[in-house]
Amino acid sequence: MAEERNRNHGEHESRLDRFRAYTVAHPRLVKAKDALMNAIRGAEPNSLIFVFGPAGVGKTTLRLKTEQLITAELLNQLQEDRMRIPVASVEAVAPESGSFNWRDHYRRLLQQLDEPLIDYKVNRCPDGRYVQEGARFMPPSRAVGTEYRYAVEQAIRYRRPVAVMIDEAQHLGKIGSGRRLLDQLDVIKSIANQTNTVHVLFGTYDLLALRNLNGQLSRRSIDVHFARYHAEIPEDRQVFINTVQSFEKELPFPDSSDLVSNWEYLYERSLGCIGILKQWLVRAATVALHEGSRKLATCSLESQALCMAQCEQLYAEIANGELKLEDRSDAVVRFRDKLGLSANGPLKAASPPVPRYHFRRPGQRLPARDTVGRVSVNAAL
Question: What is the domain count for the chain?
Answer without folding.
Answer: 2
